[in-house]
């Protein structure tokens, strides 16, 4: 079972502001915080997400094909999280909308470090 996803950052304060904004829309806050690492979510709840400066001290880079998916409970919340991401330094990778015909509704974006995320809900 997945506990949390960690994404690298080269600017933890900037990442903190970005993830604080989308976590707030999702109804959670910071659950763990250290000098080089912050995690958002709820202990014992759904899997969380974390931003960290790489342990090895090297520059954080984006993994090609790597994406974290954040699940919410409505299409309105998909749009709200996506809008919060864009308003807080994220970039568009696909506006919210249905994908396919199986009830998958998602919006795609990158955080300020270039990490790709999506926010989704199932409508069926």
TrEMBL record:
Cross-referenced InterPro entries, in alphabetical order?
Glyas_Bleomycin-R_OHBP_Dase, Glyas_Fos-R_dOase_dom, VOC_core
Q: Which residues form the VOC domain?
A: 1-122
The domain of life is: Bacteria
The protein's name: VOC family protein
């Amino acid at each position: 079972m997945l506990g949390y996803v960690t994404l690298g950052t080269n600017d933890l304060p900037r990442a903190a502001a970005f993830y604080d904004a989308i976590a707030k829309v999702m109804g959670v806050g910071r659950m763990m915080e250290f000098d080089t690492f912050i995690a958002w979510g709820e202990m014992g709840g759904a899997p969380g997400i974390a931003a960290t400066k790489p342990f090895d001290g090297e520059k954080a880079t984006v993994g090609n094909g790597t994406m974290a998916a954040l699940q919410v409970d409505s299409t309105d919340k998909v749009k709200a999280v996506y809008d919060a991401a864009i308003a807080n330094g994220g970039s568009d990778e696909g506006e919210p909308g249905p994908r396919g015909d199986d009830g998958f509704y998602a919006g795609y974006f990158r955080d300020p470090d270039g990490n790709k995320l999506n926010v989704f809900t199932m409508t069926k």
